[in-house]
Write a structure and sequence with these properties.
Layout (H helix, E strand, L loop, with lengths): L1 H5 L1 H11 L5 H23 L1 H22 L11 E3 L6 E9 L2 E8 L5 H14 L9 H16 L1
Antiparallel strand pairs: 1-2, 2-3
Helix pairs in contact: 2-3, 3-4
């Protein structure tokens, strides 16, 4: 961890040399994210309970900020809709997440597989505010079903 902190500039330069199509601002953002992740991990290692409280408050602050910036929809949520994308090999799919909020994904137009759907599912799980990295991915579906059963009661 100390190596990454001390050599982040060299790591970014190496990354840029290996990935010529990635632009400067993107690399700066990647570097910022790496340092954030390393520092976050170090805080977790030092005091897990304090880290959990801080991470929980970050998640609720982020949710508050996002809800303030999103427009409210007046019409009813629509079922999944495919929209046209400039690249004909892709399609945009919109899904109603909440009554006032949709999510939109761009996916391959053809040959979208269950393996790719699983990758998206696992990715989305990691960005949920109540994500627990100590829970195995195989347990996610069971936990989701338990939450769903609790919501129905």
């Amino acid at each position: 961890m100390a190596y990454v902190r001390e050599n982040i500039e060299a790591i970014k330069t190496r990354f840029q040399n290996l990935n010529k199509t990635v632009r400067g601002q993107t690399i700066e953002e990647y570097g910022r994210r790496v340092l954030f992740a390393v520092n976050d991990y170090m805080k977790w290692m030092a005091d897990r309970s304090a880290w959990e409280r801080e991470a929980g408050s970050r998640g609720s602050n982020r949710a508050d900020a996002e809800s303030k910036t999103k427009q409210t929809r007046v019409d009813k949520a629509k079922p999944a809709v495919a929209e046209t994308v400039a690249d004909s090999s892709l399609r945009m799919v919109t899904y109603p997440l909440r009554p006032d909020q949709d999510i939109t994904m761009t996916i391959p137009r053809r040959d979208f597989t269950l393996a790719e759907a699983r990758k998206i599912y696992l990715f989305l799980a990691t960005i949920a505010t109540d994500f627990d990295p100590t829970v195995s991915p195989q347990s996610f579906l069971k936990l989701l079903e338990q939450d769903r059963a609790g919501d129905m009661n």
